[in-house]
Amino acid sequence: LRQGFPEVIFGESKSVGQIERIMAALAARGNNILVTRIDEAKALAVREAFPQARHHAEARCLTLEQKPVEPRGRGTVLVVSAGTSDLPVASEALVTLRMLGNAAEHLYDVGVAGIHRLLARREALFAARVVIVVAGMEGALPSVVGGLVNCPVIAVPTSVGYGASFGGIAALLGMLNSCAAGVTVVNIDNGFGAAVAASMINRE
Amino acid sequence: LRQGFPEVIFGESKSVGQIERIMAALAARGNNILVTRIDEAKALAVREAFPQARHHAEARCLTLEQKPVEPRGRGTVLVVSAGTSDLPVASEALVTLRMLGNAAEHLYDVGVAGIHRLLARREALFAARVVIVVAGMEGALPSVVGGLVNCPVIAVPTSVGYGASFGGIAALLGMLNSCAAGVTVVNIDNGFGAAVAASMINRE
Amino acid sequence: LRQGFPEVIFGESKSVGQIERIMAALAARGNNILVTRIDEAKALAVREAFPQARHHAEARCLTLEQKPVEPRGRGTVLVVSAGTSDLPVASEALVTLRMLGNAAEHLYDVGVAGIHRLLARREALFAARVVIVVAGMEGALPSVVGGLVNCPVIAVPTSVGYGASFGGIAALLGMLNSCAAGVTVVNIDNGFGAAVAASMINRE
Amino acid sequence: LRQGFPEVIFGESKSVGQIERIMAALAARGNNILVTRIDEAKALAVREAFPQARHHAEARCLTLEQKPVEPRGRGTVLVVSAGTSDLPVASEALVTLRMLGNAAEHLYDVGVAGIHRLLARREALFAARVVIVVAGMEGALPSVVGGLVNCPVIAVPTSVGYGASFGGIAALLGMLNSCAAGVTVVNIDNGFGAAVAASMINRE
Amino acid sequence: LRQGFPEVIFGESKSVGQIERIMAALAARGNNILVTRIDEAKALAVREAFPQARHHAEARCLTLEQKPVEPRGRGTVLVVSAGTSDLPVASEALVTLRMLGNAAEHLYDVGVAGIHRLLARREALFAARVVIVVAGMEGALPSVVGGLVNCPVIAVPTSVGYGASFGGIAALLGMLNSCAAGVTVVNIDNGFGAAVAASMINRE
Amino acid sequence: LRQGFPEVIFGESKSVGQIERIMAALAARGNNILVTRIDEAKALAVREAFPQARHHAEARCLTLEQKPVEPRGRGTVLVVSAGTSDLPVASEALVTLRMLGNAAEHLYDVGVAGIHRLLARREALFAARVVIVVAGMEGALPSVVGGLVNCPVIAVPTSVGYGASFGGIAALLGMLNSCAAGVTVVNIDNGFGAAVAASMINRE
Amino acid sequence: LRQGFPEVIFGESKSVGQIERIMAALAARGNNILVTRIDEAKALAVREAFPQARHHAEARCLTLEQKPVEPRGRGTVLVVSAGTSDLPVASEALVTLRMLGNAAEHLYDVGVAGIHRLLARREALFAARVVIVVAGMEGALPSVVGGLVNCPVIAVPTSVGYGASFGGIAALLGMLNSCAAGVTVVNIDNGFGAAVAASMINRE
Amino acid sequence: LRQGFPEVIFGESKSVGQIERIMAALAARGNNILVTRIDEAKALAVREAFPQARHHAEARCLTLEQKPVEPRGRGTVLVVSAGTSDLPVASEALVTLRMLGNAAEHLYDVGVAGIHRLLARREALFAARVVIVVAGMEGALPSVVGGLVNCPVIAVPTSVGYGASFGGIAALLGMLNSCAAGVTVVNIDNGFGAAVAASMINRE
Ligand SMILES: Nc1ncnc2c1ncn2[C@@H]1O[C@H](COP(=O)(O)O)[C@@H](O)[C@H]1O
Ligand SMILES: Nc1ncnc2c1ncn2[C@@H]1O[C@H](COP(=O)(O)O)[C@@H](O)[C@H]1O
Ligand SMILES: Nc1ncnc2c1ncn2[C@@H]1O[C@H](COP(=O)(O)O)[C@@H](O)[C@H]1O
Ligand SMILES: Nc1ncnc2c1ncn2[C@@H]1O[C@H](COP(=O)(O)O)[C@@H](O)[C@H]1O
Ligand SMILES: [Mg+2]
Ligand SMILES: [Mg+2]
Ligand SMILES: [Mg+2]
Ligand SMILES: [Mg+2]
Ligand SMILES: [Mg+2]
Ligand SMILES: [Mg+2]
Ligand SMILES: [Mg+2]
Ligand SMILES: [Mg+2]
């Protein structure tokens, strides 16, 4: 990320040793650091070397703030999610958004099968500059949200579900076929990527 | 259909001659007849032999009523559809429902991206004994409807759309993964099958 | 489930602690509770906090009846299953049906390759108001059953099989293409969803 | 086919000229000839050059018998099919079987949704040395037949259907997952291949 | 589009008569109108009723400007495309962008296999507020562009190609897996949708 | 298997206790028993209760012969396999064939990329009444074998391979498209099913 | 093609007018020109403007040689194909190879089900510097050829076949899983691409 | 590998005992040996029996050089890779290339989203006789490299990624659709196969 963003480390296929070595090198330059896709065990191990790092367990992220994050967005980025199983992806988006200097808020437990809970939160929706919608199963939430708001909507399919959800394919296809204009889509479970795109949109 | 229903002919792969021969045999027994999946040209040709038959152009059906259809349902079956391209499938369901003796109504142009048009028709939804929801694209409408009503919802995916709609697969998967309880699904574009199932549910 | 149903908790991605917290809150309101997709270990742990809860091991369910389940269906819901590997899904449907107040019965070990065992049970089939058919492999049973009965048939594909069964896709596709009228389909392994839909159909 | 079989020409991607040239060469050697996958127009054109050839319109085949077909099977090969749309594939199998010297019979209109029509023909089933089952849609018929007979069953999926039949994939998967022992499968619409295999099985 | 945008008609499955009726109704209200997915023949027919409408042949669009389009974006939206077969989709995006009040430019013939042609146009890339990248085949262009720019990139896969391009699936998957941050994706061939999203991002 | 075959138990999803109970019941009737898909640990446990049972480790089978297997085939069934990873499936076929009373032989290590090793064994091929060909990867072996022999060939795709072998789909598709006449196919890894079909073909 | 190759025009989605304009521009520079994927009608039309161009009907190519093609390969490139339906793709490869200065030969009608015809041509195989193998259906030919030769083999799957050939997917997967070392694969029907790669390999 | 290459053992599905037995037999003949797909634990165990064998941990290979590898290529084979997760596959290619007598070099960390790092290494690219490009995710790197160089490019998709990368399918499809001429493709993660093909190309 050559854009004044913090340095980002994709933790998934890296060992504790590899993560620590990369963090040490980046930290030496004074940068803020975001590690994504790091599981509980690895995060605890890394924190022994970097006790000042913060572990965001639900988001599976680790952050190291060596200098205050500079606020830089024009408005608020709202993350909307439905079921509890979508929370890790929504949290990854939220942690990323904040590390990138955005004001970010979370509207959760607002699935399409209970449309009134969503409509009751209309104000939050209308106040956003960008909305990230995280949803698994049938992936219908971005269409409903996109029909309500006038701002860009970034849809994140999640791998939540079973049977014919096919690890997120059902949600992904639903989102790509959204009949609401202004909806764009990122890869399954890619809360990080949605947050980076939202952050670029939100930039002044 | 061994259930006192009218005789049904699946017109798709049959020639005008074949359809006429089968109709003649069934008509001789005094039955009502429903021909589905019959295109404009074939329907016009068949009507020359059976001038009393009625052509339902949008539904691609032909009906021959030799005796009045006996009303037999306990309540109303409501067919809900979104875009104009879903109308043929919704119409096939409606024609079938009526030939099977059901009171049937149609709520159309109520897609998920304009949720208020749907909510404005709440009464119609609450009054139904069964709801058939016909939708293409992301197939999200059954989830929203299923969240509003307490009666059974039969979802019919349509082959409407382009690109990643894959001829109705996106809608089909969305509906199979519906997070609303009480939703069951039939084959892509199968308005006829949904109507038969709804009719069995609606029977006294 | 806003329909006077018991409260339902989807146990799959929840920890013992989460399940206990939700159960405590719901129990305080006096409701009956159904937990689905809860494995042996979790069920035993939760029962330490709720000793009066009943564990349905094969169905992977836990039920808490604080007040007697009120009978509310018009007839019997029959669950039909083929191989022994389909039993967990059939059991999930049965437990759900009974918690929702239905008279429910089970016809098992009646696969399509031994058609006479099924035909020998004709009476049970004809007596049902709704039939739920649970089958893996080629998913052919709903077609045979649907051809025999006049009532609605809800087909549940299971993930049983290997190779080209593709985790239930073969059975799912078979059921969606059923040539028997009146068959609708739910997601792979979704015994719960089939039971809720059957219960709505069965309601007086 | 190096097995004393007649010469076979796959007509699909060949022009009338190409077919005539190949037929002339083979006919000169005194062989019997079978042309498969030849459409009406091509067949009529080829018959102008070979008036003694016979056109099997439904089977889309052309046969030229220059010498009597020698009977060579041990028993009867029975071709079983369900809907009218499966007839072309069943006919291709029948024409091929007879050109290969087999006694072949046809049992049709016996789908799984009307199991009694099939059971009423039990004798024909039990009398066969090999059964070829041709079916589209859910492809369930081979399982039922395989459960009734003790002889080998060759299943031919057809591309009949719409929506989630996916041009025969649903039927193909159903047949590969058949729970009846002794069922083997050939390619979608491959009535010819099934007949050749059946003929080898039937050989004395 | 409830956002002060012109009225949009999706022309694909509509007859000339239907399009004219909708246009007449919208035109009566004084709105600007954009018809997408309208083929040559239909466009010429509609222009007889609306001679002041403009036909954008390559974009398969028809526009009717009854009042000047009000400029409303903060910067330029750049549409980047590779091969000549991607031009219709790129043009649909450009026509839509301009009807929505954006300054829009086009950079074409800059595929990934000739990276220097793209690098030679660096300035145009750096000057954009949003970039729409239209590409078929392997869909690699958004990754390269996304690596060069700091602004949001919207990727549009096209159905261009043959064999294993599977009607745009290869390009779609490539774009969803883009290793460049800030890339979001729309449906195959959906130049219109990309333009609406870009327009929302570009809004002041 | 209602055909005078031994009793067969599909061991995969059954516990040691379940297998023992079924075996005890069947053994009491004096039958021979074949258990397929039973792993090492389960087989050892079951053998404690049935010490006279024989464990075929590579085939993952257990057999109990209470009376001598009666020979009943007309000729030899030849099992042909390529790589060492195909051996378990080939062995399952061999154990099954012998329990069903067939003379069975094994030709192994004869892949298509070393065609001379196969040709060197021509005699064994020509001597067979039925050939079962077991192969993973590209699944090409049945085509080559089918081109050499005049008897029926049953192809068994295996889940051997990685990447684009997709758990046996590549081999399965290759076999379904075999250009050699007389080849039929069973499910991926289904050595048992191939053996049952071969046994029915081989019957006198 | 920045490699001293002739100029290449992909004719598929281009009009006669577009092809003529591009040809005129390239011809003015004195280059040799190869047009691929040009159908009969277009080719005839273009030849009116460029009477000296040569039409390769089976290969669907048009070539314009303004200067003699300079021979530049180290050895012979052998194109091997099986069925007659593979000939267009094989021919496209041959025309391309010759325009690129290679000595190219064609070995045809040598499918895997008749292995002896292939083995009879061993010499031609052993003499080649590169072999291009063109095959549809099960795509097994490259494995057999690759097992015989020591030089690089480029496999071209063709869209020939029906049913489970899925427009060339079966052949493509077979080739990607080839158990013969030294086999690489290009896109379905891409005879042109195979020839370019072979030409680069063959370069001195 | 009948080509004077070292003996190669595919370690994946073999036990330590099996590998040792095969190695002992081959070593007795004086050959060099390459074991691929051997995990850490197995490699350590095998090295106890063959202490002179060398373990290449990242490449998951074991090599035994009993005689010096004879250099035999005409030029250098360059292996290019993008992310760190692609390193095991790149390393497998490198180890194989060297065992086959090629001069081989590695250019890594040069993904398409940072095109300048790749362009900075232009010389290395231009100096190669063959380039192997290893990439996961969107698989775009071979197109960019193929556009820069004139020599053959062998693309190796890797199973790196998540969600819609589908275990390497996205990268595989991208590479098969590469718009750069001269690119051929091997199976997902098949670094070994790419190296064998490159070695054959590089041979004098
Ligand atoms: N549109 C339809 N979709 C699916 N099945 C249908 C349709 N129309 C009729 N059928 C079924 O097809 C049967 C008649 O098929 P056939 O004998 O081929 O005319 C009827 O009994 C119905 O069950
Ligand atoms: N090319 C297009 N692709 C996808 N959606 C479109 C396209 N053109 C128009 N639309 C949408 O279709 C709606 C109009 O649909 P309709 O009422 O059927 O004409 C518009 O509001 C747009 O959101
Ligand atoms: N390996 C196998 N693959 C497929 N089917 C099998 C296999 N082994 C046994 N079967 C079938 O499974 C039936 C027994 O199933 P079960 O009653 O569940 O033990 C037998 O009659 C066989 O038809
Ligand atoms: N049959 C073909 N298949 C794939 N690519 C081709 C084919 N013919 C030409 N090409 C490529 O298409 C490029 C020309 O494309 P275009 O500028 O659209 O005519 C050439 O440089 C070739 O690399
Ligand atoms: Mg909106
Ligand atoms: Mg509801
Ligand atoms: Mg019925
Ligand atoms: Mg049987
Ligand atoms: Mg960027
Ligand atoms: Mg043969
Ligand atoms: Mg070789
Ligand atoms: Mg190049």
Automatic annotation (TrEMBL), chains A, B, C, D, E, F, G, H:
Transmembrane segments: none annotated. It comes from the Bacteria. Residues 75-204 form the PurE domain. GO terms for biological process: 'de novo' IMP biosynthetic process. One of its GO terms (molecular function) is hydrolase activity. This is 1-(5-phosphoribosyl)-5-amino-4-imidazole-carboxylate carboxylase. It comes from Geobacter pickeringii. The lineage of its organism: Bacteria, Pseudomonadati, Thermodesulfobacteriota, Desulfuromonadia, Geobacterales. The chain holds residues 46 to 249 of 249 of the full protein.
